[in-house]
């Protein structure tokens, strides 16, 4: 291939990416109302302030400050906003016509290339501009994937509490709630019944994070492999949220 042709292709790639993202943004904005009509935002208040603090500390440390995306330590590739955007836009309501064709395209791109696709992140930015943080959190709490139990998928922390602990979410202790949150990263790999040893190790690391005896080492440090149980009780050192 001639050098000039390679240069043209290299110059064209950023333009194509910008065009792709511009279409994603317009589609996400225009599709927000029909997408949310099928989402059914549950009432707020599913979590106590302390539970909210634990969940956001582990899954999205800057949730109440960022605008859909974040580079916080321990964040990894997804925020709570982007997880909700994925479920609302890509796997929630099924659109028809042009909107449906674009939805199928974006879903295919995400399934193929989620680690490098910026489309979901832009959807998260649009979602964050249109939906309050508390509504986002309520959706996340109600629909986050929590593994399989007795042959069925478990969706949401309330269903997980009933399935794995045999009690309502608002009756869980702090340590029990930490156990549920610890599963979120990989709920079948950190399954309390199927993979107890891996689950116990993960819970110990998350408990240390909550207790303040360790911190993520960087943006991609979601495994917390350097964390170990601290001397203090996690329940006694859980930070209180600053946004209620």
From TrEMBL:
Its main location: membrane. GO terms for molecular function: peptidoglycan glycosyltransferase activity; serine-type D-Ala-D-Ala carboxypeptidase activity. Pfam families: Transgly. GO terms for biological process: cell wall organization; peptidoglycan biosynthetic process; regulation of cell shape. It comes from the Bacteria. GO terms for cellular component: outer membrane-bounded periplasmic space; plasma membrane. Gene3D superfamilies: Biosynthetic peptidoglycan transglycosylase-like. Residues 44-206 form the Glycosyl transferase family domain. Keywords: Cell membrane, Cell shape, Cell wall biogenesis/degradation, Glycosyltransferase, Membrane, Peptidoglycan synthesis, Transferase. It is found in: Cell membrane. PANTHER family: BINDING PROTEIN TRANSPEPTIDASE, PUTATIVE-RELATED, PENICILLIN-BINDING PROTEIN 1B. This is Transglycosylase domain-containing protein.
